[in-house]
Sequence to fold (282 residues):
Amino acid sequence: MATIIDGKTLAQKIRSNLKLECEELKKNGINPKLAVILVGDDSASKVYVRNKNKACEDVGIEFEEYLLDSSITQEKLIDLINVLNYKKDIHGILLQSPIPRHLDINEAFRTILPEKDVDGFNPLNVGKLALNQDTFVSCTPYGIMKMLEEYGIDLNGKNVTIIGRSNIVGKPLIQCCLNKDATVTICHSRTKNLKEHTINADIVIAAVGKAKFITEDMIKNGAVIIDVGINRDENGKLVGDVDFENVVNKASYITPVPGGVGPMTVAMLMNNVIKAASKLYK
Ligand code: GUN
Fold:
């Protein structure tokens, strides 16, 4: 049976350390602050933002929420980002995605100052990650890399198969894994014969958004399985993309849902805000 990668406990440990760093910053007159913009009333986004708020409270980071109506214009959204960019007391800016379809999220992300881009979505920061330069790494990929590191799972020369090519998870993960010298395969909804790409993978990272999508027959014995999915099964229970009950018997390591990648994403956001406030970012 696989070792369960306990993201919840690791995230708690990271947050405890960040709390000390935050106290230290405050002693030096720096009061770390995160501004979060939420457009519209997507229910999942509201839950994510609430979790981020709670984590900020726990670490000691000030949290400022900007709730915008779903009918807001692009111009008003950009104006708000520009105001936050120039506010000296705000160290990090996060625009919760998705945003309504009439808005241009790419323009919004590139408007957030790279120094305050704690999500790592500004194209400059995306480019820096691709060049393996110090930058803000987007929080879910960063959290996954931290978990692998904590459990002593080396990526050097390993076959990593990522399923899902989103800008938030799949694409930055390619760079993170390449930067650790893995051989990376990226699959998506148009990939033919998915199993051909997963069966020889030492590490499978699933970010698909479909319950029980990764089944036991798709992975090799002893594979490491990272589950980014957050879905509801037929009984309304929170489940990932992996058929956990069966895959757990074949894998060497596996992340649970909940309690795996999710809490790590929030912890790495806290890490990025403290980093921004510390001006460690170069
Ligand atoms: N929506 C889902 N995940 C994320 C995230 O990591 N950051 C932002 N800004 N929006 C998201």
Summary: Residues 94-97, 119, 139-140, 168, 265 surround guanine (CB under 6 Å).
